[in-house]
Design brief:
There is one protein chain. This protein is of the alpha/beta class and about 290 residues long. It has two domains: about 35-115, Rossmann fold; about 145-265, 3-Layer(aba) Sandwich (Rossmann fold), CATH 3.40.50. The chain has ten helices and eleven strands. The strands form three sheets. It has a six-stranded parallel sheet with strand order 1-11-8-7-5-6. Helix 1 packs parallel to helix 10, helix 2 (about 45-60) packs across helix 10 and helix 6 packs across helix 10 (about 265-285). The protein is globular, with a radius of gyration of 19 Å. The protein binds guanine.
Amino acid sequence: MNESMAATARIIDGRAVAAALRAETAARVAALPFTPGLAVVLVGDDAASQVYVRSKDRAATTMGIAARTIRLPATTSQAELLTVVRGLNDDACVDGILVQLPLPGHIATAAVLDAIDPAKDVDGLTPTNAGLLAAGRRGLVPCTPLGVMKLLAAAGVALAGARALVLGRSVLVGRPLAALLTAADATVTLAHSRTRDLAGECRRAEVLVAAVGRAEMVRGDWVARDAVVIDVGINRTASGTLVGDVAHGEVAGHAGAITPVPGGVGPMTIACLLENTLTAALTRRG
Ligand code: GUN
């Protein structure tokens, strides 16, 4: 091809990869002699959380998982929430517990996560599961980073020895993803808001994952030719459209492959939650 001719990035279709994973998980659930249970706890009425929780409940139900959503008012005390979590820990029908974040400001998130039985922690956020991952051992792995790894695998991206950059050091995505990429033998940079020459760091990456929650922060000239770009961001603009953390239009002309928003990482998160629920059920019930 002519050097000056811009190749168009391959689009990594998260909906298709997620549909395949869900079908596989549904088949495995159908073959079980019991029904796995998932409990989702939502405190307060954060609009985005309402949407996410409804999607999780619906997706679980359609694949034969007994899902229930426990909705608590924003005024719920930390002690009351801890009582609910401990009740779910003790409930033999519940294999997976997910406490939707963010929690209202008067509740200490760490105290709540600490209370979840690690064997039922389908979000992979308890210190036990986070610690296992950091130590290069596998417990239950957070759903979004797990989904990113499955997308990279489905796209045939060779990670061993590759320069991978994760933009964003959140507990939910950036930190666990850096650990997973390290376990896959990538050379990992974990960049964040205090990183010097962020654009230059990004340009060196062969695999770039953006998970900062800032609309179109990653510009076209931050991305190397032929880089693989995974966009975890879901940001609503003033005009109401959804955009990622990557300026898709500026990047798609020269990246090697890129995920769309929506339809990239988003569907993978829920598919991985369902798989984690099955994994927890199989582990707990022998
Ligand atoms: N809020 C946004 N994403 C997530 C997630 O993956 N898990 C939980 N618990 N809360 C979230």
